[in-house]
Design a protein that fits this description.
With 256 residues, the chain is α+β, with helices and mostly antiparallel strands. It has 5 helices and 13 strands. It has a single domain, classed as Deoxyribonuclease I, Chain A, CATH 3.60.10.
Length: 256
């Protein structure tokens, strides 16, 4: 059985950049890296925007409620989504969604392991989002926790940024992200798996000011991640992160 492949991508508008996303998914399939799970920021305004995905994917996304506290753009129907490949035998529990459109949580059984996938979009004006999210995924909620998305901050203000300018928004959100990391003890998979020299080369050459899109997995399971890379081609104004070979499912069996 092939391993599980996970993609986190800020598509920055499914209607605008959806064609590029579908092309990238097909490209990965042709490279024998077919995506099983992807976590995405969509900016979907119309449910019909999902039409090209319904045949192959189980789709979970936030339903924007303009009456919700913390909503900053009434034009956005939803921001965060999780898609699961129908070829995989995901047995899903009821999803948890944020009514302001900023996160989706999907837990599912796959090869007798309970995996929880979290897609996050942290709006730059939102406050308290990560504290709220932390309450939803408190351990021992799941066996394997994967959190991906756009946090609108650099986790490491030195290593993950090129600009030396002080960014008050990044600073504020980072103060929320640090306790979230402390409580759930996830690791930045790219930092953990990629050699220091390659990290330095990547950060030196990117045109972006900082990394804000991350792929986290709980620390005691990080060895399941066999490879993690940031794609050098753009789907939108954000580069996507893909974890290859997260786990070989037939080796991950346990009694439940």
């Amino acid at each position: 059985m092939r391993r599980l492949h996970i993609l986190t991508v800020n598509v920055n508008g499914l209607k605008k950049n959806g064609k590029k996303l579908l092309e990238e998914l097909e490209k990965l399939k042709s490279e024998n890296s077919e995506v099983d799970v992807f976590l995405t920021e969509t900016h979907v305004k119309d449910r019909d925007d999902w039409e090209n995905y319904k045949e192959d994917w189980k789709i979970f996304f936030t339903c924007f409620d303009s009456r919700s506290k913390g909503c900053y753009n009434s034009k956005l129907e939803n921001r965060a989504a999780i898609l699961l490949n129908k070829k995989r035998d995901f047995r899903c529990l009821p999803e948890i969604v944020d009514q302001s459109g900023c996160y989706v949580i999907v837990s599912c059984w796959i090869s007798r392991r309970l995996c929880t996938f979290v897609s996050v979009y942290h709006h730059k004006k939102q406050r308290g989002l990560l504290k709220e999210l932390s309450e939803k995924i408190k351990p021992p909620y799941t066996d394997i926790l994967v959190v991906g998305g756009n946090f609108n901050t650099a986790l490491d203000k030195v290593e993950d940024r090129r600009s030396l300018l002080n960014n008050s928004v990044h600073n504020r959100i980072r103060k929320e992200l640090v306790p979230f990391m402390g409580e759930h003890n996830p690791v930045d998979a790219w930092r953990k798996k990629i050699p220091d020299e390659e990290q330095y080369t990547y950060m030196r050459n990117i045109p972006e000011i900082s990394r804000s899109d991350y792929f986290f997995i709980n620390t005691d399971k990080w060895e399941l991640v066999k490879d993690c890379r940031i794609n050098r081609d753009d789907i939108s104004d954000h580069r996507f992160v893909i974890s290859h070979s997260m786990m070989k499912l037939k080796e991950a069996q346990r009694t439940v």
